[in-house]
Amino acid sequence: MNEVLRLDGVSKTYAKDGPAPVEVLRGVELTVARGEVVALVAPSGAGKSTLLHIAGLLDSPDSGRVLLQGRDMAGLSDRARTEARRRELGFVYQFHHLLPEFTAAENIILPQLANAVPQREAAARAADLLGRVGLAPRAGHRPAELSGGEQQRVAFCRALANRPALLLADEPTGNLDPETSDRVFDMLMTLVRETGLSALIATHNHDLAARMDRVIRLNEVVA
């Protein structure tokens, strides 16, 4: 199975206050191959966050299928969906969402402990990842003691801590200034390439999108 992710005819409509519901996605067809980094380009409000939530098993489509590593996610129990998210998916958002009371290393160790990884192994994995992004000296610092770019690098490491098959990222550098965004994105791409990870990265930055293997636009994957 060469595909890590397949969205097959995915549609989603939300009921809003007003005379008619709002159709956010209609008939989306999208694939991400093993080891491929795909840019998802769409303007704000076009449905890319909804698409990522569906791909990440945080939301369910009204119709269509989500296949993760060839397995149809439809009909899974909440517990099974949570288990799949924890073991097979990594998430990075525009804002880092680090736990403020824990250090950088602890933020990377905790999701591993939730997956029953032994403490020593989890700590070694955290140290390795922080070293790869140049943050080994900052391992004992809490998020408030880190810059915005450093916080986002820690968030990248946390997303990769459990060695997921697929990384989903929603404007992962959108909250940073252009120079920091460029530098942090390079580090993300290096991490992804070194680990052989697949990734679907939503961005409105066409320069960043051009550095990925393939660029798709949301209107091009909607029937």
From TrEMBL:
One of its GO terms (molecular function) is ATP binding. It holds the Pfam family ABC_tran. Residues 5-223 form the ABC transporter domain. Transmembrane segments: none annotated. Keywords: ATP-binding, Nucleotide-binding, Transport. It comes from the Bacteria. PANTHER family: IMPORT ATP-BINDING PROTEIN, LIPOPROTEIN-RELEASING SYSTEM ATP-BINDING PROTEIN LOLD. Belongs to the ABC transporter superfamily. This is ABC transporter ATP-binding protein.
